[in-house]
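ugh ok fine here u go
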Amino acid sequence: MAEQKVMMTDPRQEDYFYQEAIKTLRTNIQFTGIDVKTILFTSCYPNEGKSDITFQLSQEMGKLGKKVLLLDADIRKSIFASRYGGGKQVHGLSNYLSGQNSIAEIVYHTNYENMDIIFAGSLAPNPSELLGQEAFNELLKALRDRYDYIIVDTPPLGSIIDAAIVAKQCDGAVMVIESDLVSGKEAARVKEQLEMAGCRLIGAVLNKVDLKKDKYYHKYNYYYHGYQEKKEVTKKNKES
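structure:
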């Protein structure tokens, strides 16, 4: 379907525990059932790490041979084109919803295996109205048959209503919660908004956890890196 290609880059430094957590998230999503194909990701506040998680998750899904579409539905303040590549001139979701481009013109192949992307597109003065149109529902219907998973990145629901509008068209939702930032009351409020939109909350991701405060993971981290360093020393001794 996608004829345009875009070269994307991953600025995140390699992190063993983060990658393992993403793989666990991938596995848990796979066990939610075959009917859960369109999955919304939201948060309570900005900068909780939601977009990075959707980007990493889409890559991991693709590595398993699943055909994945990452749909950036944050047409207020998207970071995908600037952070991961794509440039400022790419057509995207807002361009389609406003009737400027067709579906074929907004879907891009990426350099990651089995992963396509739809960028947010041009900044729009009326995001909620655009997302609430029947055109958005028709877009998801057209894409469902072409992808195993559609990962939808939305603005934080604790600040903006857009995610609740998108949630009406999704099979399930995942909340990203920054450790030591979001209160239980605020998380419950966002969960309630998702349920009122008719979208099932299938899970939550506790992000930016300080492993030094977690005795189990801090101990595991110590042994893991100690083991890796020991392997490197042993390897060098054998070579010399």
